[in-house]
């Protein structure tokens, strides 16, 4: 496991949390390198998963859920139609399922830099989602 002492408090927060929320832009069809670097350090062997000698490791974050809120300048359906949802596959299958998290919810919003991007409507959708989760 990556032994950076600064990561200990963040790992404690992940252990404590039932739901983990990531908010990030989509750059070049994927999350930014800084977020992926954080994930590489945080979701390390010995913390997020344990090798057990089989094809896949044992995920140590079972029972948690994740919400990914991604924003982009381009059209909302660009990742689906042009990139075959590579971003979602990366986050859901290659990361969260690998560490035992099965409940993953995505919100992807395009046109966020446009004056007619309906930003308030998009924020209201997230607000309503979190209102229902807390009940």
Structural commentary:
- With 135 residues, this protein is α/β, with parallel strands linked by helices.
- It has one domain: Flavodoxin domain (Rossmann fold, 3-Layer(aba) Sandwich).
- It has 5 helices and 5 strands, in the order αβαβββααβα.
- It has a 3-stranded parallel sheet, covered by helices on one side. The protein has a two-stranded antiparallel ribbon with strand order 2-3.
- The longest helix has 15 residues, at 119-133.
- The chain is globular and about 50 Å long.
- Belongs to the NAD(P)H dehydrogenase (quinone) family.
- One of its GO terms (molecular function) is oxidoreductase activity.
- Pfam families: Flavodoxin_2 (PF02525).
Record field, number of beta strands: 5
Overall shape? globular
Please tally the helical runs, counting DSSP H or I stretches of 4 or more residues: 5
As a whole number of angstroms, the C-alpha radius of gyration is 16 Å
CATH architecture: 3-Layer(aba) Sandwich
Helix/strand-derived category reads alpha/beta
Overall pLDDT confidence:
84
Placed side by side, the strands forming the largest sheet appear as 1-4-5
Number of domains: 1
Q: Uncertain runs with pLDDT below 50, 5 residues or more?
A: none
Q: Name the helicity range.
A: 25-40%
What gap, in angstroms, lies between the N and C termini?
A: 36 Å
Protein name: FMN-dependent NADH-azoreductase 1
Family: Belongs to the NAD(P)H dehydrogenase (quinone) family.
InterPro entries: Flavodoxin_fold, Flavoprotein-like_sf, NAD(P)H_dehydrogenase_qn
Domain Flavodoxin-like fold: 5-124
């Amino acid at each position: 496991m990556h032994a950076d002492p600064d990561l200990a408090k963040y790992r404690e927060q992940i252990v404590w949390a039932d739901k983990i929320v990531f908010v990030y832009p989509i750059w070049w069809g994927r999350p930014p390198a800084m977020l992926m670097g954080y994930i590489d350090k945080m979701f390390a062997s010995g913390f997020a998963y344990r090798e057990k000698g089989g094809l896949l490791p044992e995920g140590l974050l079972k029972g948690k859920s994740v919400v990914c809120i991604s924003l982009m300048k381009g059209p909302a359906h660009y990742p689906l139609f042009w990139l075959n949802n590579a971003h979602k596959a990366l986050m859901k299958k290659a990361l969260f399922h690998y560490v035992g998290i099965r409940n993953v919810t995505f919100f992807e919003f395009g046109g966020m830099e446009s004056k007619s991007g309906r930003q308030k409507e998009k924020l209201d959708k997230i607000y309503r989602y979190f209102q229902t989760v807390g009940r």
